[in-house]
Amino acid sequence: MSDESPLQFPCEFPIKIMGAGTPDFRGLMVDLVRRHAADLDEARIQVRDSRAGRYQSVTVVIN
Questions:
Q1: Strands 45-49 and 55-62: what pairing?
Q2: Positions of E strands within the chain
Q3: What is the pLDDT of residues 4-63, one digit of tens each?
Q4: Distance between CA atoms of residues 15 and 34, nearest Å
Q5: Among 20, 22, 25, 32, which one is most buried in terms of CB atoms within 10 A?
Q6: Is 41 helix (H, G, I), strand (E, B) or coil?
Q7: Hey, which residues does 47 pair with through a beta bridge?
Q8: Chain-centre distance of CA 47, in angstroms?
């Protein structure tokens, strides 16, 4: 077994968060991520609603 990490740091790392499709879900999740990655770029946030609109995914890419 090797001691090398499969990731080379620094790197871009996507995080996908899924939850109920409420109006405040995106804002709450972005606030939560910014507690740990204060330099989160607004352009690196993607939101996608489920087909029926009951769920939402928020994908953020951090460095």
A1: antiparallel
A2: 13-20, 45-49, 55-62
A3: 778 788 889 999 999 999 999 999 999 999 999 999 999 999 999 999 999 999 999 998
A4: 12
A5: 25
A6: coil
A7: 58
A8: 9
Question: Letter for the amino acid at 44?
Answer: R
Q: Which residue bears the tokens 């001691």?
A: 3
Q: What is the CA 52 to chain-centroid distance, rounded?
A: 21
- CA neighbor of 33 nearest in space, from 50, 47, 22: 47
Token couple for 57? 């995914």
Closest-CA residue to 17 (of 61, 56, 63): 56
Q: Are strands 13-20 and 55-62 parallel, antiparallel or unpaired?
A: antiparallel
Query: What is the distance between the alpha carbons of residues 45 and 36, in angstroms, rounded to a whole number?
Result: 15
Tokens at residue 4, please? Answer: 């090398």
Q: Which two tokens stand for residue 51?
A: 């087909």
